[in-house]
From TrEMBL, chains A, B, C, D:
SUPFAM superfamilies associated with the record: NAD(P)-linked oxidoreductase (SSF51430)
Any one Pfam family match given in the protein's UniProt record, by short name: Aldo_ket_red
Full protein name: NADP-dependent oxidoreductase domain-containing protein
GO MF terms, alphabetically ordered: oxidoreductase activity
Keyword presence, Mitochondrion: no
Organism per entry: Saitozyma podzolica
Domain of life, per lineage: Eukaryota
Protein family: Belongs to the shaker potassium channel beta subunit family.
Keywords for the protein's UniProt record, in alphabetical order: NADP, Oxidoreductase
Amino acid sequence: MSAPAFDPKNMIYRNLGPSGLRVPVFSYGGWLTVGGTQKGDIVKELMKTCYDNGINMFDNAETYASGQSEIEMGRVIKELGWDRRDIIVTTKVFFGTNRSEKQNTRGLSRKHIIEGCQASLERLQLDYVDIIFAHRPDVTTPIEETVRAFNYLIDQGKAFYWGTSEWSAMQIQQAIEVAKRLNMVGPVCEQPHYSMLHRERFEQEYEPLWRYENYGSTIWSPLDSGMLTGKYNNGIPEDSRFATNKAFFENTVKELNSPEGKAKIEKVKSLTKIAEELGTTMTSLALAWTIVNTNVSTCILGATKPEQIVENLKALEVYPKLTPEVVARIEKILDNKPALPASYNRRDESGKLI
Amino acid sequence: MSAPAFDPKNMIYRNLGPSGLRVPVFSYGGWLTVGGTQKGDIVKELMKTCYDNGINMFDNAETYASGQSEIEMGRVIKELGWDRRDIIVTTKVFFGTNRSEKQNTRGLSRKHIIEGCQASLERLQLDYVDIIFAHRPDVTTPIEETVRAFNYLIDQGKAFYWGTSEWSAMQIQQAIEVAKRLNMVGPVCEQPHYSMLHRERFEQEYEPLWRYENYGSTIWSPLDSGMLTGKYNNGIPEDSRFATNKAFFENTVKELNSPEGKAKIEKVKSLTKIAEELGTTMTSLALAWTIVNTNVSTCILGATKPEQIVENLKALEVYPKLTPEVVARIEKILDNKPALPASYNRRDESGKLI
Amino acid sequence: MSAPAFDPKNMIYRNLGPSGLRVPVFSYGGWLTVGGTQKGDIVKELMKTCYDNGINMFDNAETYASGQSEIEMGRVIKELGWDRRDIIVTTKVFFGTNRSEKQNTRGLSRKHIIEGCQASLERLQLDYVDIIFAHRPDVTTPIEETVRAFNYLIDQGKAFYWGTSEWSAMQIQQAIEVAKRLNMVGPVCEQPHYSMLHRERFEQEYEPLWRYENYGSTIWSPLDSGMLTGKYNNGIPEDSRFATNKAFFENTVKELNSPEGKAKIEKVKSLTKIAEELGTTMTSLALAWTIVNTNVSTCILGATKPEQIVENLKALEVYPKLTPEVVARIEKILDNKPALPASYNRRDESGKLI
Amino acid sequence: MSAPAFDPKNMIYRNLGPSGLRVPVFSYGGWLTVGGTQKGDIVKELMKTCYDNGINMFDNAETYASGQSEIEMGRVIKELGWDRRDIIVTTKVFFGTNRSEKQNTRGLSRKHIIEGCQASLERLQLDYVDIIFAHRPDVTTPIEETVRAFNYLIDQGKAFYWGTSEWSAMQIQQAIEVAKRLNMVGPVCEQPHYSMLHRERFEQEYEPLWRYENYGSTIWSPLDSGMLTGKYNNGIPEDSRFATNKAFFENTVKELNSPEGKAKIEKVKSLTKIAEELGTTMTSLALAWTIVNTNVSTCILGATKPEQIVENLKALEVYPKLTPEVVARIEKILDNKPALPASYNRRDESGKLI
């Protein structure tokens, strides 16, 4: 393995929302790769490349590869002998390990949150994770029970912080308020889908959370499953994620061939030209664009090859080039900026009621 | 004035959400009529007709007809000498009386809520209203300040309950939680737009509020400004609300002539046939349909003539005829039932995870 | 009296800290003038000029002119018949009316806060003030007692908000936290001295309050008792405040003749040149400079003549001309920018620990 | 090793602030010596001398000698086989062990407080410390998170008390109030710099903490890095701390040669005469002077040789000789008594308002 391309000291860090935890703006996630298509030595290579280049945050979930993702990552962390204090490890409970039909091995009941976390820690061979996420909302469990269960884990030293994933803004706000009422620790971040082509929930629905709660975020699919690398500009390559996970991506592929899908590809083609002007790739541009939004605490990368990680981190070099002018040009091409939530009492810049 | 067509004893009552207040399923509102196009004796006639036929709930707002709506209604209540304990009077603060540009005579600051309510009570010549609404959300005022100010009014005896109007589900949920944290009284109902043709927010966004908070509702525009009476089936009549409030309804009229507007009219035509089958009018069918949804606490009527009120109340006769089968036929014509909020952990009727 | 020079609609408004109250960036205060040197008709002229030009906020204190300031302002408010909802009236308790030696007619005990406020309201002929301030900290009264007493006034409808004046950041933070613990209303703003020549406490000590509590401010002496008008550039004129309030300003005058005082005058002379470049006066520049700092909610003017108010409001025209470049030139002349509070864990702009 | 010079029974004990812990007025700290210049047998000799002469409190920090200070002290405690119940061991988290650039191995996040404490306990070979300090404030972490994390350590039995070091009075007050609100344990003491020549923060800024919170203190550098021993009266000796830690003390040495530095030396010379009159050394006088201030709970000694400890403890003999008259003479020479925080409502000794 060659020397790291990036000096870890140049990584940019941000506070994870209202917490004191400092997270790197790019982190690495096991979704769809680790423990599934990627096992054994390659995982060690991937994670070592991450760490050596400044990515010290690793995202997981009980359901990723039916628990195998945690097993692989846990093994590598042990083998590489990293200082536990220097890395950030996260996982998520909700789906159980195999999305089984069993009623109590999933969801956000006190029972599954505690039992699920314990099983994850065993697979990871760790005493605690840094952040534990509720992987989805569970409308059949009162939010108070869920808030209490995550606080139990924190009080037991099994986790330092907790977060949400794919919750509605309303559910998150409620969890924050319930925690306040109970003098408990509220969730500190959401893990949502966010990318150039998927913006509405992040920029519109969650906007009050960024503005009033200083909520954090760990975003996934910043490249829209590869769409924003430009590799689908001329159809679906045989070795792509869409081709290798046919069942999972069925709808995505269908959408790709729809008029909307084709319009997206046209946008990617136009953005590619801007990338070239900036002397970079479409991929780096798309990744750098996500962290221009400072409501993004960290952007999760899902590379399958070590060299992709190094490639992705070139986004750190593009980032300073994304001046307001360049961002405005990108907005014009994307033409999908969500409107802010309606307000009946806002003022314009001069302070006048509008 | 002729004898009442309906025995008030046959009025259907529902609890207003989580409160002990019993509201009639049909109430009367001053919006766009009382104090504006309708003044003096006709208002007394309208309100007397309401009361004599079982409608004892009157809805108002500081902004309706720039305060004149409250003045008219207050005068009539005094003149008719009704037992204050037998009627329900509501009003709303937010816009001020004249939607003026003044910074502190509008909004949901403590200052405007208290001062605005006081001014409304003076116009109404009442010591208190039964319910006071926040007529819109105010994103420039912290929700805690607003919750505290409405509780001040309740503690001072100026109002018995408070509610929201056109707030997002998230804002309502937050107000409920903040009130719980402060051991204060939360809002008990929302005043939203709801009708056969305007369902999304009520049935989808607010669904968790109905389900988990037992939130109440006082719906407005159940006939979509007349659209659902069928009177626009052949164009806009000269004496209709759209014709007499041109500026206000400009966009509505524009929409009426759009392809979507025309599709709506087709639906109304099909529904009219069902109404005829049931031996009633389109208007009565549309009104009755709203109260089939038991999340509707009361449906606000906005009639300009006493005979319209009597006509509207025929909905009480149609209501029992709206069996599940008939409702299903209506749904098929409407073809606009909003999907429920996504849930990853729901069970089907047999209890199986779906 | 001539027509107002400024359209009130052009006044700039800001939220008063974490409250929903909207305050004009310039307000008018009675300190040292109203009820003392200025009585009767001139007060009415002054306040009418304020209101007609967009200043609808009037600041007072029980101690100003031994209560005469409140009496004068209250009389004028009544005589001019303004809509109470459209104006903001504030007062302060602490010193009593005559800075007497009596032990319980001053301070921040529950007794004096309640009794003092009642006496102020009687002098003002008002049912309530919008904001009531603790005019100084009282180290002999527990802060909890003071927080409770101000909440009593708010619960009784005697005031909508409460604030502090010349408290230490520590005392303010404590009051905020005590209010949180008791589920009470915390103070929303501080009334401190702030000007080009008096910056340390505002910009340094209070900095955490602006940053973390979104605390508001109503600043006094923005012209440093006239120093920043340039009128002392060539000595003390006979009709100036320093000359007419000799005892009060004894130390100030002494300082004026010290080396430090002379250095200040040199700065004012240099700034006057910038004012001339911008086509304005030293006074307007100094006033506009205070509101460039958005931690200033409102800047209290203390004019003794109606024409001064109009002159002062020209600051609204200078304000947009204070670009970052101009502000930087001013900073260079002032050469008194306070350092931020020391931090042992700050990061530089790239996120690196420093 | 000779017999102890002092009977441990004569040691003076004070409660550590508002806690029930009794601390000796003199304690021993590892800063700049233990694990750095002093290792192995000498550490055992030093600590045994402390203990045998009545000093049973040992102060440490994760950052002292990059963790070596804890390792040395932990080893000695184990080797000497002291009763754990009879000694007080403290440590501090914040800087990490090597003041490294790593983002999460320092600061006051939940992560670092818990992980840092665990690592310290491992180095000390202890199950718990008596007091754990936040070695500095961390403005990037909400104080609530820090309060919760220290309470976690206390709940887990890893520490009995927690304190602050070099925090502003405002930050300490806030931590106390947040802990009260959460029904948690607040900090009990501050570890500040305090000596005859460094008084402002201790006597002025912290004064409300002593007065109203009965806050405790464990002061460091009571001899101002040797300045108050008189050894710099004639320049910097070659074996002094300033000479051996050149980089660290660069600024101190520079100051020593400045006019202010020279003025300080003159004061020390005058104080030395008083010491001689009292039949003691400058060192003993300076140490005894600190404990005359009963807001000092314990004064941390940093001796590098066993005999220095015995010398230092002679301060216990001087202490009773520091009558009000002698203290007044010392004040006159020091001429640096900080003014008390301004108060507008204080009473003089007769109870009159002043």
